[in-house]
């Protein structure tokens, strides 16, 4: 099979969803094999730095999660939902990829798994107290406001949505963990999507770039109040590499941005 061509070009909502559903279905096994040990079966990790929700408390104190209805978006194998269930919460794990959710079934858990697009959540208004997404959905959709508005719709008044994405500054640097990844190679302000496409020019993977200001504006325009923006520092204990994330780069530039949003 010919390797896909990496390029920068426009990709809309439908093309992005189709490409990324297929990519995650094809690559879920490899992803869980490669990163499953780091993620654990029932840990809530916000990103490659290893910031753990049990320490961060971005959804609120762990002891206050009991009895709360929580939606995890882009759940993958539902590691975060499994941790939430252990705290007494009532999670629902949603993912676009059927194969990722099969890994959630393999690991096990007594909470619902839902295969659906985050741009059209199959839940009634006001169904959840909290929502979370650790690198799920937001980087892969052409219009993140569609997701944000849907999340606001299904949250109850006062509900909180916390999501993590690749830190926008990372788009100006090569996706390399070593010294070659420390020099700016492109414009931070170039919002053209990163696309991998097959020989017929059909997208098989799409990732979208938003500047930090874009992300803030998206949050506010979708009816949320931004209450915190967390940029995790690379901890001394973490010696692993994950794609372009590494101790070398992590000690110099942020790799993850976590947005803590509340619905009034």
From TrEMBL:
Entries under InterPro entries matching the protein: Methyltransf_11, Methyltransf_Superfamily, SAM-dependent_MTases_sf
Q: Give residue ranges for domain Methyltransferase type.
A: 71-163
- Keyword set for this entry? Methyltransferase, Transferase
An example Gene Ontology biological process = methylation
Specify the protein name: SAM-dependent methyltransferase
- What is the protein's species of origin? Streptomyces glaucescens
Gene3D superfamilies named in the record: Vaccinia Virus protein VP39
Cite a single GO MF annotation: S-adenosylmethionine-dependent methyltransferase activity
């Amino acid at each position: 099979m010919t390797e896909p061509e990496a390029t920068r070009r426009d990709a809309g909502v439908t093309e992005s969803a189709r490409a990324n559903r297929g990519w995650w279905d094809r690559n879920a096994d490899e992803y869980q094999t490669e990163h499953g040990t780091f993620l654990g079966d029932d840990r809530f990790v916000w990103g490659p730095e290893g910031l753990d929700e049990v320490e961060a408390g971005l959804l609120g104190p762990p002891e206050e999660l009991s009895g709360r209805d929580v939606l995890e978006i882009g759940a993958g194998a539902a590691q975060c939902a499994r941790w939430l269930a252990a705290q007494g919460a009532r999670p629902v794990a949603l993912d676009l990829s059927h194969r990722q959710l099969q890994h959630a079934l393999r690991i096990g858990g007594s909470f619902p798994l839902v295969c659906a697009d985050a741009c059209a959540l199959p839940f009634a208004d006001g169904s959840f107290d909290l929502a979370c997404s650790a690198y799920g959905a937001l980087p892969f959709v052409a219009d993140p406001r569609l997701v944000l508005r849907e999340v606001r719709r299904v949250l109850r008044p006062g509900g909180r949505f916390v999501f993590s994405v690749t830190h926008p500054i990372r788009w100006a640097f090569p996706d390399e963990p070593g010294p070659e990844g420390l020099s700016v190679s492109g414009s931070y302000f170039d919002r053209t999507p990163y696309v991998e496409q097959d020989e017929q020019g059909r997208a098989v993977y799409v990732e979208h770039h938003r500047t930090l200001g874009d992300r803030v504006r998206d949050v506010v325009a979708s009816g949320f109040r931004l209450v915190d923006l967390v940029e995790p520092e690379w901890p001394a204990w973490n010696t692993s590499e994950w794609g372009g994330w590494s101790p070398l780069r992590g000690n110099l530039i942020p790799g993850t941005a976590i947005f803590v949003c509340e619905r009034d």
